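Exercise 7. Predict the joint structure of the components listed below.
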Amino acid sequence: MPHNLGIRVASSRLASTFDESCSWGSTPDGGMNRLSLNNDDKRVREWLIEQCKQLGCSVKVDQMGNIFAIRPGKNNSIPPIGMGSHLDTQPAGGKYDGIVGVLSALEVLRTLHDNQVETYAPVALIDWTNEEGARFPPAMLSSGVWGGAFTLEHGHSRSDASGNTVKSELERIGFLGDVPCSYEANPLSAHFEIHIEQGPALEAENLRIGVVTGVQAMNWYNIVLRGREQHCGTTPMNMRADTLLCAAKMIQSINQQSLALPGARASVAVINSSPQSINTLSGRVQFNIGARASSDALLATLDVNLEKACKEVVEDSVRLDESIMGKSGEGGVKMEVWEKIWECPKTVFDERAVSMVRESAREVEGGRFKDMVSGAGHDSVYTARKVPTAMIFIRCKAGISHNPAEFSKQEDIDAGANVLLGALLRYDDYLKEKTAA
Amino acid sequence: MPHNLGIRVASSRLASTFDESCSWGSTPDGGMNRLSLNNDDKRVREWLIEQCKQLGCSVKVDQMGNIFAIRPGKNNSIPPIGMGSHLDTQPAGGKYDGIVGVLSALEVLRTLHDNQVETYAPVALIDWTNEEGARFPPAMLSSGVWGGAFTLEHGHSRSDASGNTVKSELERIGFLGDVPCSYEANPLSAHFEIHIEQGPALEAENLRIGVVTGVQAMNWYNIVLRGREQHCGTTPMNMRADTLLCAAKMIQSINQQSLALPGARASVAVINSSPQSINTLSGRVQFNIGARASSDALLATLDVNLEKACKEVVEDSVRLDESIMGKSGEGGVKMEVWEKIWECPKTVFDERAVSMVRESAREVEGGRFKDMVSGAGHDSVYTARKVPTAMIFIRCKAGISHNPAEFSKQEDIDAGANVLLGALLRYDDYLKEKTAA
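Solution:
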């Protein structure tokens, strides 16, 4: 039988692996809070390494704390085929985002082990550090360093709200490895990733599996506004430089700009105002915009429109203020910072890798799957810059993600893991043929 | 000469007292950060007590940490005439708000001392605890307990953002006194207060002094919205329950509601969203509204309009969500909390006390003053519930307050202190005549 195709993952073992590993970071509402490099992340990493070692894998940890657990093949002179995702979560996240990818990869390794399958190439399970970017923005930080999108220094120096850096936290939890974090020094042959869809499309069409052909383009922005701290009781309404009111107008305008461009999405999820006093108008407001679009050209249009719309809000404020206050008002609310803190163009996955996912999905699901573009970024965006990459989406409930209510059925996870197994073995056959040729 | 009216405060001493006492809590930008009951507040309180003791005052500290420094009179069987304000500031406040009131009162005591004036009634300088409410909302907390607006338990249990209570912080800095905090147990005969205007009216008319006849009506609100935490990249724009977007719409609508009612003011200065993740729509947003109006009736109208406007925003969200998501969406963004956390009706000050301020202003300023209604709340709002109360406003630059740029000229402060001295002596004469009669 070609490709060892008769073998299947063990559903009940995969299910119990979720129960076991999600004990670190679970929250009473059924969700997860396992921010990157916290103590729960440390514990689940140690657990993961132990599981892989039991299967005879060797384990490497790189300078960004990325874990590579490698199961040897027949020809260990070629780089391993990677199966990666992440074990960190949002602060109020679910049990599936990222976790499905790593635990399915572990189940694939166990299935190969049980069936004594010797692959041609070595196979690597990868846990990428800080995919969420929730603790240390931006997202996909460590696959980004590996893929050359960020320097190691940039990766190490990212810090959380308390000022702890990635490097200091890696040291603290014992995961500052010495393997260089780069494709060139520590290569893969390919990268496959299962992930929950995080959207409603598969559920709407009653499908378990999506074959992901690429990822939409993304920008993140940081904005700081400065107005005047003024007494809320005594300052006439028309003499105010009300920073939070300007921010509120921008948030609405950002929403309208994205609604006006089909295929674009933009929103503000983080806002901070100071001083925090009911009786004093805020004089400084910081917020972030997350913007996405189905093409680089559309994102470029959205980029221009967002900046224009936000600048119009401050120009209105300045005009109004100067007409009433003259120079004494110092010109209303100003935009102190308009900064693009992250840019990620549209990703198109490798045609061969995608076709192997598609073939595997056809075998496992009998044709019941669809091709999709991912709305979210994933570690595969950065691996795709260096090696053939493809992704498998599985259905999730109501498209809900980054939320304790995030949920995927076990049968859908099983289907995804079996598609991953089939894609991996197909890619292994391809490498064998290519090397022989 | 009636009323000891020839005497005047010492300008240079009053000026140097500012320099001396503002060393605790001053910020590099020329402002102050002396949040109630912090270590700087402790030090300035200790300094104040020392200054008053040097003048022969006895000092009482009550259960809310209010300091009463009492200079004896001829007849110590009647309650002292109070001169009070506060030494705490906003987190990014100025050197004048509250501080002018306490330091002018100290200068009045020193002037009485220098001129060996024996008043008929005793005279009390009062430093009221936590007037700003910036660290422990609401404002005017401890004059409020003294005046019966709040219970002692309420006052003691207010907490800051770190969970420290007023009581524990009073204990920590050694200012949890044992004098009962109430008018009944520790009465005054009257209360006079100097304060900076915190508005632009006196400057606009080139006047130093305002005679304050009352304080506008005020409400504070706490609002909590609950939407859905959703992935910002994958969730279609029309399937979102975007909590921060709803809050932004409300902030704009609150602004519009207050603009629509001349004499009303409403604004949002505090907002907090969670989780703080660029990639996850916030599922919980908390904010506060501060609302004021020139009459109780107008504030009641504003109250109805604000609640209606904000409820319309959530109703729109619920309608939209249910039309797209059905029951699975759980109904869009909801208003979990709409709570009035502070209500303070319009205050009208005592006619006799106000007339004595007016007479004193006429003597000091030769008729160059105006009657005014205060836009801000002050400790005098709560003393007015129990004893004849009046206030003196002094001019400040550009109406700026709650800001490091807050500024009043020394000559304006001197004028205010002399008006206070004259009003105090007039009220003392009135008490003497009244007791004799």
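Discussion. Chain A has two domains: 2-216+346-436, 217-344.
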